[in-house]
Amino acid sequence: MRYTILMVASVAAMISVSSANATMRISGDPGGLIIAYAERFAAARASGEPVIIDGACLSACTLAVAILPRSQVCATRNAVLGFHAAWRPTGNGGKATSSVATQAMYELYPSSVRDWINRRGGLSGRMIYLRGRELAGIVPACDGSSTAEPASRGQRAVRAVKHDQYPHATLAAQPLR
After folding, report:
1. In the chain, where are the structural domains located?
2. Quick check: pTM over 0.85?
3. CA distance 16 to 39
4. What class is the 2-162 domain?
5. Alpha-carbon distance 60 to 34, whole Å?
6. What's the pLDDT tens digit per position in 52-73?
7. Closest Cα to residue 64, out of 81, 48, 47, 85?
């Protein structure tokens, strides 16, 4: 599953056109379909587009720290990452945990994130939040302002990312979240 997600994301990145002159700024992102986020961050990785986490980045949005190299992503003091087990909708409108998708996402995270998750009991249906000093120890800090980019980069235009800008892609008949 891990390699399927990476392969699909890599192909999407190769056919995507993304501006290397902009910076993606994430704030208030509740997450969504895993494959859509894998594609988005693989395209950003391929283009070299810097990513600023400046608010909530929950669920599949946390793939930013899994797919992007540390030199391409930073977090402001407003940043919060929220992790939980992956799930898929059931026929009766409920949710069913997907252990395969959960394990695939978990394996993509850097060891520092996996260690942090393990210290909190692992991924489950309950959201766990990484913020503040703990987050700063894992994700590089931006250069001080909420519209800054990673400190190692020069000035670029900042584009805000709204959750609905990226259409949901379907990997299977029942999408994973």
Report:
1. 2-162
2. no
3. 9
4. alpha beta
5. 5
6. 999 999 999 999 999 999 999 9
7. 81
